[in-house]
Amino acid sequence: MAGILVSLTFCHAQKTLKDAYADAFRMGCAVNSQIAAGRDGRSSDLILKQFNAVSPENDLKPEVIHPRPDTWNFRAGDQYVNYAKNNGLWALGHTLVWHNQTPSFFFNRSDGTPKSHDEMVETMHSYIDTVMKHFAGKIDAWDVVNEIIDNDGSYRKTLWTNAFDGDGDEVVRLAFKFAQESDPGAELYYNDFNAWRPEKRDGIARMVRMLQKNGIRIDGVGIQAHWGLNYPKNEYITAAIDTFASLGVKVMITELDVDVLPLTREGQIIGQTMSDPQFQLEEFKTYLDPYRDGLPDDVQAQVTTRWKELMQLFYNRRDRIDRVTIWGLHDGMSWKNDYPIPHRINYPLLYNRDRTPKPAFEALLAIPE
Ligand code: G3I
Description:
It is a single chain. Helix 13 (about 295-315) packs parallel to helix 14 (about 360-365). Helix content is about 40%, strand content about 15%. Strand 3 (about 90-95), helix 7 and strand 4 form a beta-alpha-beta unit. It has an 8-stranded parallel barrel with strand order 1-2-3-4-5-6-7-8, surrounded by 5 helices. The two termini are about 20 Å apart. By secondary structure, the protein is an alpha/beta fold.
């Protein structure tokens, strides 16, 4: 008996995430520029060992690639694709049409007045064309449009939709059409958070059907998984996977992390107001940032349970899921330490700050057995 236990433990110690899930879906990890540039060798080694797909956390966003009208900067992006391709990793491009991390000159002329419709079409076209042609053959798929649908399923009022007089369908149609023409070899995805919310899910599904009816190719939908210990309900996640799969497109779980910190008293998950000075008070800090000295065992156990139930859910639906991507490797690099409240200590990823694996990591290896 002891011998069997020893060999099981040994077996887990040897197994990797990408091998454990090889028959199910790709296992992806978001990388930052330190990792891509080789300045975080410990993280890089773990990623190469455990994952077979990567996403660029920030390096392929418009503010990095095209920060000023006369400046194109592919240095960080090239570093990312070289890291991916030199190591045989499947590489995502993230993201082309998004209202965040996109400079204002995309939308306004140099005198500050808004661009005309024709100028916006040209701006979108030249950006997509320049970027996709630069990376052609090295990026396997692009998040062409990111986060354009609202919680009620309508289009959000963003810089992009406003610039097209609120006609989100036109924004999406043009973006996917230009993307298809610029690099016919790349897969084309839509990517969004809260995609599990029934109204939003149905709004995304309508948008996908709209593209399909217009003969415009869309290859997949990414369900961003910025979730917590107790939300969202698993049945919503399952329903979203099934809804998108029924459209005949690939389904990806993207940007997975598990927030362990308390929500604000208002139950707010994502919002701006938490940078308000009142939330910087000591008495709020104790309540909102309780694990500065480490994660208590009972919370660690909840973390393991949550990762297990999520990955079990994905594994059960492996015939409909193409990739599961975690939004970073170790807790220290996560955006969740700074959002929605800056400078907290969060524990949303599979590796601790010292690059040791969490119990959740070991638990995930056991699911496919
Ligand atoms: O570029 C500046 C740098 O010059 C400065 O030294 C540094 C100081 O904090 O800030 C840098 O900018 C930061 C940028 O990441 C690059 O690291 C911003 O402050 C920071 O807000 C920004 O956060 C990124 C966020 O997108 C912004 O939209 C996160 O790292 C990134 O994880 C996050 O990723 C998004 C996905 O792309 C789309 N879905 C949601 C997801 C989470 O917000």
